[in-house]
Structures are given as C-alpha cells and as structure tokens.
Amino acid sequence: METRSLRSLLGGLIDYAGLFPPAKLAMQPAAEAYFRGLSSQHEWMLSRFVCPADRLDELSTAASMLMPGTNATSGYREFAAAGEPWRISALVEKQEDLALIDRFNQRHSREDQGLANVDVVEIKVDGAHSVDDMLDAIPEDMFPFFEVPPAERLPGGDVRGFVAALAGNSCGAKIRTGGLTETAFPQPRQIAEFMVACRQAEVPFKATAGLHHPIRGVFPLTYEKDSARCTMHGFMNVFVAGCFVFCQGADTDGAEEVLKESDPKAFICTDQGLSWHNHVLDITEIARAREAFALSFGSCSFDEPVEDLKRAGLL
Fold first, then answer.
1. ∠14-243-202 over CA atoms, to 5°?
2. pTM
3. For all residues of the chain together, what is the average pLDDT?
4. Which domain holds residue 37?
5. Whether 233 contacts 259, CB under 8 Å
C-alpha cells in the first residue's frame, strides 16, 4: 500500500537508463519507454533520462516529438504539451563532451524543438587527481557525479580518499552497485563504507547498475532465459541505509546490516515514517536524506522496479 513515507523515500528516485545493459534498448524504444513512464501513475518515482553525451544528437532525433512543446505529434500532444521539460543526465568521458551538451541544451530550450535540459553529468575519472580539472570545466548550472574507480585502483582499496577529494565542491559521488557478472556486485560492507565516507565528507551520492529489485535477493543477471543468477542489492536497502547514515549517524556496521536485509516485511512504511526492525525514520528525516544525500539510482528498467514493489507488497 502506497504511503507518505514510501513516496518520500522513492519520489524521483529512478534515473531511467534503458540504453544500458542488460536492457540495452535502441534510442527510439528507450525514449518511448521514458515517455510512458512519465505519463504513468507511478511517474512520481521517475527522474532523469540517462544518455551518453555523444548520443545526445541521436536523442534529439528520436525524442523531440515526445518532449513537451509545440512539436508534439497528435498522439502525444495532450500529455506532452502539459509536461515539464525532460531532465537529462549525460555521461561524460572527456571535456569536449561539454560542447555537445551545450548544443543540446540550446536546441531544446525552444518549444518547437521539444523542451529538455541536461542538468546533471556523470563522469568516470582515473582517480582523485582528475577531479579538479573536470570541476573547472563544468558549467555551474550542471551538477556532476564522479564515479568511484574500482577498488583495485584506489590507494589501499580505501574509498575515503576519493570521496574526500569531492568535499567542499558542488558535486556528488557515484557508486556502481552491480553489473552483468557476479563479480561486478560490491559486498554490502563496501557500499556501507562508501555511504559513511560520503556522510563524513558531506558529499551526496547516486548509485547505478544492479538495483532492479527493491529488496536484496537472488535474481537473474540478464533478461536471457538461461541467465546466471546471483545475489543482488535492493534499492530499498540502499536508500533506507542511506537515510540512517545521513540522519542518525549509522556507522558502517549498522548500514551493512540494513543492506543485507532480505525480508521485505522487515521494512514497514506508514504515513508517519518507516521502520526497519527497531529502528525508525520519520518522514521528515527521509525527506532530508533524499534531498541532500541519497539522491537517485540508474536503472535500465522502470517497469521492473515498479512491478517488484507491488509483488513485495510495498506499493
């Protein structure tokens, strides 16, 4: 059953990444899936469309008729004309990509081109030493997330140094929480350490990959019939843990326990707040954490998280 605390926890939580594995849709069906999500009864959970910067021209071609504005086709006009501009998160690989983003934003500031805006960028860097150069190049009206390099590329495998390099800047950290192989999934301890490091450095975070399901469990790695299976993290686990870390100072051990929870019934949502065993978050704490700390996650499907929430009795 949908409650105020659930809406506070999940509101604007999902960045749609249908272009990426395992879905790996072509641009046109991905744009149409995002449009359907925006016009569905669960649109309140949906946030940005994730697109590589070097595919923004392709997005313009495929989606301009779906975006709000005077160019909407008759089949989409009623909803599109009333909607807000599409928010886009662009994946940046090099500084030159910023010119592609600027060109896209200028084009889609006009109603006759369809209204959209890249206001978030997601960046892979070699390490903490590369952060400052990118920050200097990124326009002030864009919020960057810097993806944490793999543990083997971090000094001593410790995430704290990388997160500390982001402190004091208007930017966030991005953690990869899964992939197409079992080894791509970090241990709950690693995610907990990352969250605590972000809280200590006052750096917000987003997650990406592997969070198709609300509660931790064993699931197929891909949509293939004979797909291998492994234990995957739940997005409820991740973001409830994030709320406890941010609002109540949960340490690594405490966050890890939330991340390891596999019973959907352990999370109880009411109009007043959310509880996990004997720990309680009120609705104000959830809202604060979501606004300032635990920001979003990327998923190649919007339908799958929604359907799983229903099956778990959480929606």
1. 95
2. 0.94
3. 93
4. 4-311
5. yes
